[in-house]
Design brief:
Layout (H helix, E strand, L loop, with lengths): L1 E7 L9 E7 L6 E7 L4 E2 L3 E6 L4 H6 L11 E3 L9 E13 L2 E9 L3 E3 L13 E6 L11 E6 L3 E9 L10 E8 L4 E7 L15 E13 L7 E12 L9 E7 L9 H5 L8 E3 L4 E3 L6 H6 L6 E5 L4 E5 L7 H8 L1 H31 L4 H8 L20 E2 L5 E3 L2 E3 L4
Parallel strand pairs: 1-16, 7-22
Antiparallel strand pairs: 2-3, 4-5, 5-17, 6-11, 7-8, 8-9, 9-10, 10-15, 11-12, 12-13, 13-14, 14-17, 15-16, 18-19, 20-21, 23-24
Length: 417
């Protein structure tokens, strides 16, 4: 039995610069006003991103024309093309580096994103994703909607083709794709975006454009034996500017060096990158302490310049500073006695309530015809109305599908869950 908790640790916001350029046309007297997006690299610590506008030739070059690819390698996923809120595992023919970790399989979802985590759970939209345009897409509402993927040995292309928003079908269809290269480059390309992405409703499904990664920490629950809780901590997120996503645009993200790429102690401790790298002799691994191997790093008492205090509600950073005690710690020491007094009073109140409940139960058992007994009999659990639970609209849950089902007009229709 496992419980999952998702926690946000670090979020980065991106900025855009728009220029109004006046260009004089040689050979005539008229002037032409052009809106151009300034193409400068945006540093996200783990990636740099560059956005190309509709008039930029790179936007066209980065779009992969699947129709011109080898037909034997282009696959239309029948189940994803005919269902809503489904996800399917896709095996890669190459190692894809994501945040420094090499992946060989991914999970493609109908909602316009790729899940990269090892642990498949109901909240796939929370973290560990590659999202060219995460939204409430439902390929089952149109026969023209398909989810296509193509692997040529050095790149994986996933295309959401003519998909519609389930809660706003009349807006038109969306066509976009994500290309994952073996060198770690990630390209988002957009062909048809019928509305402003920032205006897409997130009531029934999150709307995200960017990347995210997390690490999983296993907690033992002392009160319940043989039960562990897996808590997912998001340590980094890339959020791209939604207003830049229009027809014929593209975003290219280049990976930056991480500690995981160093394979020796000397190269690790002498590295000069954005992270403070440490070498663990027991694991023979270089790390900053923030990656998917966090559990191994802690279990083996590996060195770490940043100690993380993990609990079920937060992640707190405690920096070593010549042994100085933070002000918060001193304040906590002063409040120790009031805290203990309140805890004792709370325990006494709970004991009194339990004692009262026992006495009432004994009284009812020996006096079945009393007014108190009749009151509880009339309100026994068999008379209570059944509580109905349904999936929260703000927390979509994805089911992992298997390649079984019935064919329908050349596609595979998934069986009803």
């Amino acid at each position: 039995m496992q419980a999952y908790t998702t926690l946000l640790f670090h979020r980065q916001y991106l900025s855009a610069k728009v220029m109004l350029i006046e260009k004089l046309n040689s050979g005539c007297n008229q002037s032409v006003l052009l809106f151009c997006v300034q193409q400068e690299d945006t540093d996200h610590n783990y990636y740099t991103s560059k956005t190309y506008g509709p008039t930029d030739p790179m936007s066209k070059d980065l779009w992969v024309n699947v129709d011109q690819m080898d037909k034997d390698k282009v696959k239309i996923h029948g189940i994803l093309s005919n269902t809503h809120r489904q996800a399917a595992r896709v095996n890669l023919s190459f190692d894809f580096p994501f945040y420094g970790h090499f992946l060989r399989d991914l999970t493609v979802a109908t909602g316009g994103f790729i899940y990269t985590g090892d642990v498949v759970h109901r909240m796939l939209t929370a973290t560990q994703y590659i999202a060219p345009l995460m939204a409430n897409f439902d390929p089952s509402v149109s026969r023209n909607s398909t989810v296509i993927y193509f692997d040529n040995g050095t790149a994986l292309v996933v295309q959401w083709d003519h998909v519609h928003l389930q809660d706003n079908y009349n807006l038109g269809s969306f066509t976009f794709q994500a290309t994952l290269h073996s060198d770690g480059r990630i390209v988002f390309a957009y062909k048809e975006i019928p509305m402003e992405v920032a205006q897409i409703s997130s009531v029934n499904h999150p709307v995200k454009v960017g990347l995210s990664d997390a690490f999983v920490v296993v907690h033992r629950i002392q009160q319940i034996p043989n039960v562990r809780r897996r808590t997912i901590y998001e340590y980094h997120r890339v959020e791209l500017t939604k207003t830049k996503i229009t027809n014929s645009t593209a975003v290219e993200m280049m990976p930056l060096p991480t500690c995981l790429q160093f394979t020796s102690c000397d190269s690790c401790i002498s590295s000069q990158i954005n992270f403070n790298c440490s070498w663990c002799h027991l694991l023979r691994r270089c790390s900053s302490g923030f990656d998917r191997h966090r559990q191994d790093w802690v279990d083996n008492s590996c060195p770490d310049e940043v100690n993380i205090n993990l609990d079920d509600t937060k992640i707190a950073l405690h920096l070593k500073d010549n042994g100085a005690m933070p002000k918060e710690s001193a304040a906590e020491r002063k409040d120790t006695h009031p805290l203990h007094t309140g805890l004792i009073l709370g325990i006494l109140v709970v004991l009194l309530i339990m004692a009262a409940a026992v006495l009432v139960t004994v009284y009812i058992y020996h006096h079945p015809t009393s007014a108190a007994s009749l009151f509880f009999i009339e309100r026994r659990p068999s008379r209570w109305p059944a509580m109905k639970f349904r999936r929260g609209s703000g927390h979509p849950s994805y089911a992992e599908v298997e390649p079984v089902g019935q064919e329908k007009e050349g596609f595979i229709e998934s069986e009803q869950c």
